[in-house]
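Input (EamA-like transporter family protein):
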Amino acid sequence: MFSSSTPVRSRAGVLQVCSAGALWGTAPVAFAAVGDLPPLAVSMWRIAVAAVVLGMFAVATGVTTAVLAAVRTSPVPVVVIGLGVAAYQALWFASIPLAGAAVSTVVAISLAPVAVTAWEALRTRRTPSPGGLATIAVALAGLVLVSTVDARTGTAPTAGVLLAITSGLTYAAVTVVGRHAAPRIAPLALTTATTTVGALGLLPLAVLTGPVMTSAPDSLLALGYLGVVTMAGGYLLLYAGLRTASAGTAAVATLLEPATAAVLAVLLLGESLPAHGVAGVVLILGAVTALRNR
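Output:
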């Protein structure tokens, strides 16, 4: 009984993480609608709105005690994950004008699954299987193709790449810590606690970089979508999936984010996707499909 249900639960976990990646991939469309705030402020509001919505939902469903218990019994993972979420977003935004959006995205996102896989290999003292390495290689190849669709040159490539590397390593650390914390903490409690910490951590940085307030209706709607759907919904799915999916599998599955973003950019933002961009999307989807079948 247990042997037959475990693979099913694992596949369900991968599907949940894939869904989180797809939701995150819709964020660029919403970002495009917020034209009167700097990127860091948008990121701060994204986390803050999610924290408020999740907090209200926790109160309405009577799980406030679980949220407080998560902070009380697992303060270190909650703080590390929350600040990590804020840090890797802030570092990624900071790297974009220096190294360019394409280079920053490739380095920051593709480094995470490689780092997580290396960490799991060191922790378990086992070499990743050839199939696992091949899946990562295919996914990263697709990510490179997608990310080079709209490449541009930054003002300080070396500094930007260093920031992107730090962002990728931070995301990898958040994935690993989340994988160990998820089985002990309910998804809603973990997501509520960590997003609250992340919002508080990102607020000072957003205030220092420019305006943080807006009254434009389109911007407010977009910020609401970013917080409720892409942040609250996305991370609930992520932490639910991490209860059964490995950290390495989760890191690769979330590469659906750039694939989804590329498709939506063509369909909704009027951007053109050349042949190598289409090939990249196909490679990423193929890698995620392979993960679901493992």
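The chain has a mean pLDDT of 80.
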